[in-house]
Design goal:
alpha/beta, 3-stranded antiparallel sheet, binds guanosine-5'-monophosphate
């Protein structure tokens, strides 16, 4: 293995089957006929959102938001700032926030509060992975792919300094500044 190749933590097959399970569950839970809007958090959620959305058997639309990120660092400051809001009208619709990873939980908590200002019918959350031991705030992930330990993960949308987002699996790297 190349020394820069991330070590596999969650395989492509495991991701595929878990995402399909989540999509089936979401399709059942949102069968009330109210419009479902999946709100992806750029950029990390893009691949997860694409697969999740295509696994649904109910009508849905997609929107994107962007928040300030850690940049090239791997330390959470807890400070979150909205960089881009949704463009469509989501009032009265079911909102499902789709995140790549929940670490301290500050970002997701901020996003839930922010979405409330759009007066949706409901707000729920989906995340591909969560670092359960790192939680600093109480935030519910309604649809969770996988719980992982405290390690920096890349792939399936997740990056380190913009690298490795398009890996088909979730891998672990040791950032140089860790
Ligand atoms: P939180 O606000 O929950 O501490 O952090 C959430 C954000 O931190 C994620 O959306 C992501 O941008 C970043 N993040 C935290 N841990 C990781 C990780 O292991 N890998 C990557 N690629 N991003 C992470």
């Amino acid at each position: 293995m190349n020394e820069n190749t991330p070590e596999v933590l969650i395989s492509e097959e495991d991701i595929r089957s878990r995402v399909l399970q989540l999509a089936e569950q979401i399709s059942v839970d949102y069968a009330d006929g109210i419009d479902l809007v999946m709100v992806g958090v750029l950029k990390g959620s893009v691949i997860f959102l694409a697969d999740l959305a295509r696994g649904l058997s109910i009508p849905r639309t997609i929107e994107f938001i962007a928040v300030s990120s850690y940049g090239d660092s791997n330390v959470s400051s807890g400070a979150v700032r909205l960089v881009m809001d949704v463009r469509g009208n989501i009032e009265g619709k079911h909102v499902l926030i789709v995140e790549d990873i929940v670490d301290t939980g500050h970002t997701l908590k901020y996003l839930i509060g922010m979405m409330k200002s759009h007066r949706p019918a409901s707000i729920k959350t989906a995340a591909l992975v969560r670092k359960a031991d790192k939680a600093e705030v109480d935030v519910t992930v309604d649809y969770l792919g996988f719980d992982i330990g405290d390690e920096w993960v890349v792939g399936y949308g997740l990056d380190y300094a913009e690298q490795n987002r398009t890996l088909p699996y979730i891998g672990v790297i040791k950032p140089p500044d860790a």
